[in-house]
Design goal:
By secondary structure, this protein is of the alpha/beta class. The chain has helices at residues 29-43, 61-66, 71-95, 117-125, 143-154, 187-192, 200-208, 223-228, and strands spanning 9-14, 48-53, 100-104, 113-114, 129-133, 158-163, 168-169, 181-182, 184-185, 213-217, 235-237. It contains eight helices and eleven strands. Helix 1 links the parallel strand 1 (9-14) and strand 2 (48-53).
Length: 238
């Protein structure tokens, strides 16, 4: 290993919006390339990397259901959006010579392998980046919950929750100047204060399985590597 790291296996949780950059919708290839370079950087440290990405830059199931669409139908469309984003990320990773596999909870054999836990473990052992697509494969569950579930299944030591802000705040720092940042938070406090970090199912899963979550700013290049090196950036939920 080129440098001592705090973790050996991590799950990176990206929002779909992370891929859109400043476009407001869809995918910005430059952002995908930047993420790919950051992932490659920690992969070269000897760390096993799995990724779960949302689909909000293409379709948001909850918003569609509020507008009158059947919730199950809306959620399945959202799952398909995550498959599209997974393909974008796979392409970006492979362009920087990172071997990548997409494992989908929905069977789309022309595009991705079906999710099988043992297969995922084998890919990680071979130092391939594994992207988990289509959430849990079930409606009514978010990609945050999928990230918690997959992280536990593969034995990840931490979830890296990548956002546009540098941690968890008492209120939206984009709107309120007096918002204060939490350095560390207990799972139960996230639930009690109804902090919108991850949904309650995801936080409860992490709490039950003692899986820490680090919320940090992805837009600052090098932050993933800094977290791996033990730098205290973002907010730790434990």
């Amino acid at each position: 290993m080129a440098k001592k790291t705090v973790y050996n296996r991590v799950l990176l949780k990206l929002s779909g919006e992370a891929l859109q950059g400043e476009l407001g919708y869809g995918v910005d290839p430059k952002v995908a390339h930047s993420i790919a370079l950051q992932v490659k950087e920690i992969l070269e440290l000897g760390i096993d990397v799995a990724i779960v990405i949302g689909g909000g830059n293409i379709f948001r199931g909850i918003q569609a259901s509020k507008a009158g669409m059947d919730r199950s139908t809306a959620d399945y469309i959202g799952m398909l959006a995550t498959v599209m984003n997974s393909m974008v990320l796979q392409d970006a990773l492979e362009k920087v010579s990172v071997i990548t596999r997409i494992l989908s909870a929905l069977e789309i054999k022309e595009l991705a392998e079906p999710y099988i836990r043992r297969r995922a473990m084998r890919h990680l052992e071979k130092k391939r980046v594994v992207i988990f697509a289509a959430g849990t494969g079930n409606p009514y569950f978010t990609t945050d919950t999928a990230a918690a579930l997959r992280a536990i299944e593969i034995g990840a030591e931490v979830i890296l929750k990548a956002t546009k802000v540098d941690g968890v705040y008492t209120k939206d720092p984009m709107k309120y100047k007096d918002a204060k940042k939490y350095q560390r938070l207990r799972y139960i406090d996230v639930l009690r204060k109804k902090l919108e970090v991850m949904d309650s199912t995801a936080i409860s899963l992490c709490m039950d399985n003692k899986l820490p979550v680090i919320v940090f700013n992805l837009t600052k290049e090098g932050n993933i590597r800094r977290v791996m090196g033990g730098d205290k950036i973002g907010t730790m939920i434990f």
